[in-house]
Amino acid sequence: MKKKGVDEFPFCVHLVSWEKENVSSEALEAARIACNKYMAKFAGKDAFHLRVRVHPFHVLRINKMLSCAGADRLQTGMRGAFGKPQGTCARVDIGQVLLSVRCKDSNSHHAQEALRRAKFKFPGRQKIIVSRKWGFTKYNRADYLKWKSENRIVPDGVNAKLLGCHGPLANRQPGRAFLRASS
Is the separation of the CB atoms in 34 and 118 below 8 Å? Predict the structure, then answer.
């Protein structure tokens, strides 16, 4: 559930593409449905947050050829072969994340199984990689817990902000990083 804060779902797992290819919008939707259905059934519909990390912006075109009798009189072959739009796809590189799921540690095996089932909806090879980060943040789990105990990290929706050592000197204690006012 995307409205849950950053502290609710510490576990994160990714489905990563292992080939350079085009992934159709239909394949992305089928994988999203398969993953969502499995997680809703076994973990509960409010116990996870699924994010599709690629977007199908690339338009695929087709130059339709006629195959009926007398078609050679109507067609021009490769003259003016710019086709009509047929669908959309996402251009995917090696190592690019396709889907991400964040959940509680107790549902980690369900998230991995959901992504394994979603893998079958895509062409090519994919790998399921368990993240070392805390949820969808860019911070490692150990660092996140340490900074949270020191009051150096501020929740920001599904992400978090690290308070640094920059800013007005009036807000800083000598020899300390900027901290959120403990109120």
Answer: yes
